[in-house]
Each structure stands twice: as structure tokens, then as C-alpha cells.
Amino acid sequence: MQVLANKYWIAVRTSSNLTAVKNNTSTEVRHTMSCVMSPEGFETLLEPGALRTVFQPIARRRRAVWEVAALECLTRGPGGTPYEEAPRLFAAARTAGREAELDRACVRTALETAATAGLKDGLFINVLPVTLASDPAFPAFFAAMAAQYDIPTERLTVEVTEHDRSALEAGLVDGVRALEAFGVRVALDDFGLGPADYRALRVWRPRWLKLDDLLFREARRRKGAWDLVQSAVADALRWGVDVIAEGLERPGDMWMAAELGIDLLQGNFICAPLSADRAARAHQFLCGEATA
């Protein structure tokens, strides 16, 4: 067994054909490695400069041109490490029991990056349900960060992600209401067809509803799923909730969104995530804009 390490992770070789590629001062280890976050490594993720934010447009089509209606802030971990992509980054936080701390670091990084680029309107920021349910001081922290970077809370939306949302239902309602009291809008992210999702839509009455891309795939396969999606979208629109179709990757997804009456769209088929400076210039863009 061979062990490699840097300040972010410890990697144990599980295959004889280990491939390591030197990338600046860190070592990127390919899929032949099993990586475990060291305790000291997690601390480095919370340090200034460890995280970065990219921005994916939420678009509305005007004739042949896509216009930016909002921007979703997406966190990336340290480059060249196993934690560059968000799923593994947040999995490490979950294992360490420090999800709320990572959420706070992500919020601070997103608002600082956006403000530096002059992006102060229509920003969507992801927050884990466990953070809202377990950290009663988080809404005040979020509002304080917005004030620090001179971004009105009324121009910010917190996307409550799907993970553990149903298990934390009671505490989540209080967290959502506290955010709204500060003027922050709330989006119900990763909406599916489960009873907990529909109950959250009915109880929260969020400003935005984001349809999960998996929902589109299921609706393509089964008419029953399509009927349920139609019903959920109709209810949301009737209650004054704007609907966003996210994760659009193919022309058929666009057709389905149009059939459902959804004109707010997000996905790599429209525009992949952009760096802050490119997002600041992306008032209008065509399908297939280059990535960050």
C-alpha cells in the first residue's frame, strides 16, 4: 500500500496502475486512489482563498437571444485536489459534521466574488437544509454578509437544496421564515415528485421553484410522471411561485419546458458556468457560450 498526502487530503493507493500528475504545488491523483480528508485539510478549506465561485446564468429567451435573468453562485474547492467539485467538497463537510461552517464560507466567498465583479442583482446562493435547521444564527449571518458587500438582501435568493430536506422539515420552516424576514428570497431547489417536496412547496410558498433535471428524465419515460409535473407547475404558478427548469442538457429538455409553460431556464445546453468577469459581461449570450 502506498500513501500520498498534501495539506488537503490523504490518498491511499488501491490499484497497481497509479497515475499522479503534478499540478502547481499540489498533486492530483486519478480515480485509482481512495481519498480521505485529513482533519487539518478541512481547516484549509475554510481559509480565505481556498474556495472560488463561478456563476451559471438562469436565462429567459427573447426571440433568438438568451437574456440573463439571474445568476446561480456555484462553489468550487481548491484546484487540483479531489475536493474541487462540490459533491466531494460537501461530502467531506458532512463526514466532519461541519456543513454549516462550509456553507458560511461559501456564502462569504460568493458575495465577495460577486461584489468585486459588480454583480449585485439576481444572485442565487445554495444553502444546505441542515444549516438552516441547525444554525439559528445563519439568517442573521447571511444578512450581515450582504450588508458588508453592499448587496441588498432583496436581490438575493437562497436555494434550499434537496439533501435531507424531508428529515429536517420542522426546523427548516423556521430558517426559511427567518431569511424572508431579512428580505432574502427563497427557492426550493431540486424539486422532485415525493410527498415531502410537494408539502414544502405548499407550506413554504417560496419565491422560486427549481425543477430537478431527474424529474424531466422521468417525465420523458412515463406519462404518469409527466402529469404530476404538469400539476406541480400549475399549482406553483397559481400560488405566485416562479418556476425554473434546471439541468437542461438537450433540445428535448427545452421542448418539455416550453410545453409546461416555463420560460426561466438553466443548464449547460444554454450556458455553462462562467467566471465572474465573464458573467459580468453576459447580459446577452447565445447557446453554447464557453465555460469558465
Structure description:
The chain contains 11 helices and 14 strands. By secondary structure, the chain is of the alpha/beta class. It folds into 2 domains: 1-37, no CATH class; 42-285, Alpha-Beta Barrel (TIM Barrel), CATH 3.20.20. The strands form 3 sheets. The protein has an 8-stranded mixed beta barrel with strand order 6-7-8-9-10-11-12-13, surrounded by 5 helices. A 3-stranded antiparallel β-sheet has the order 1-2-5. α5 packs parallel to α6 (169-181). 38% of the residues are buried.
Short overview:
The protein is built from 11 helices and 14 strands.
Q: Rg, please?
A: 20 Å
- How would you write the strand order of the largest sheet? 6-7-8-9-10-11-12-13
Query: Which parts are unreliable, with pLDDT below 50 for 5 consecutive residues or more?
Result: 1-34, 286-292
The CATH fourth-level homologous superfamily of the largest domain: EAL domain
Q: How many structurally independent domains?
A: 2
Please report the first level of CATH classification, the CATH class of the largest domain. Answer: Alpha Beta
- Per the CATH scheme, the topology name of the largest domain is TIM Barrel
The total count of helices amounts to 11
Per-chain topology:
Layout: E1 3-5, E2 9-13, E3 20-23, E4 26-29, E5 33-37, H1 39-45, E6 52-62, E7 65-76, H2 86-96, H3 99-116, E8 123-127, H4 129-134, H5 138-148, E9 156-160, H6 169-181, E10 185-191, H7 195-204, E11 208-211, H8 213-221, H9 223-238, E12 242-245, H10 251-259, E13 264-265, H11 276-281, E14 284-285
